Amino acid sequence: MALAVACLAAAAPAAAQDLQRPDGWMVRFDNPSATEGQLEMFVAMPPGWHVTSGPAAIYYAPDQTASGDFRAEMEVYLFDPGNRREAFGIFLGGRDLQGDGQVYSYFLIRNGGQYILKRREGADAPTVRPWTSHDAILSYADRGEDASVKNVLAVESRGTEVHFFVNGQQIATLPRAEFAVDGTYGFRVNHGLNLHISRLEVTPLG
């Protein structure tokens, strides 16, 4: 899969005119003055989607929602970030995502092996858990001879708790009251990153 994704990404600039925005998907930038012209690429590129970001934003399809007990999982490949340590990951619990009252919860990682848990509440973005290092998170330097490094992020909503995983290892648990997860889900990409999201799915938990 890593080789296939690398080949797709390498071909992307030359074939950009043939690639299309995923049908029905929307983008919401953090900065209200940011424009679509600043987003270098967001296209459907099976398997999944390719993003070369400009300003920080969330990406989502409004009809993709999750509630109750479920597992959300995102498989993502990071291409050369240079010296940037910008974050990327999954968001859940989205409501009013194009309005002034937007809310969602997000779980991000960054190159260097750290994660953060945050909320978006209108113009505010309170931190639920600050940047924390964990050995489960792979950095670009861990890619070996590949062009990218893969991480799999997962969030499990079970009863009154929310559990967070990276590459199969549980790295955190929070009370559900601190990290609302019912609502629209999607992914978040901060400034100037080149990513391939090969999988984003939600599975109900019995």
Strand order of the largest sheet: 1-4-13-6-7-8-9
Radius of gyration: 16 Å
Instruction: Supply the CATH superfamily name.
Output: Exo-inulinase, domain 1
Distance between the termini: 30 Å
Mean pLDDT: 93
Fraction of residues in H or I helices: under 10%
Main beta sheet strand tally, sense and closure: 7 strands, antiparallel
Run of helices and strands: HEEEEEEEEEEEEEE
Q: What is the strand content?
A: over 45%
Reported CATH architecture? Sandwich
- The dominant shape is globular
The number of helical elements comes to 1
Give the total of beta strands.
14
Return the CATH topology.
Jelly Rolls
Low-confidence stretches: 10-15
CATH C-level name: Mainly Beta
Name the structural class: mainly beta
What is the number of independent domains? 1
Walk me through the structure.
The chain has about 210 residues and is mainly β. The protein has a single domain (about 1-205), classed as Jelly Rolls, CATH 2.60.120.560. The protein contains one helix and 14 strands. The protein has one helix spanning about 1-10, and strands spanning about 25-30, 40-45, 50, 55-65, 70-80, 85-95, 105-110, 115-120, 125-135, 150-160, 160-165, 170-175, 185-190, 195-205. Strands 1-4-13-6-7-8-9 form a seven-stranded antiparallel sheet, with no helix packed on it. A seven-stranded antiparallel sheet has the order 2-3-14-5-10-11-12. Strand 8 (about 115-120) and strand 9 (about 125-135) form a beta hairpin. Mean pLDDT is about 95; it is low at about 10-15.
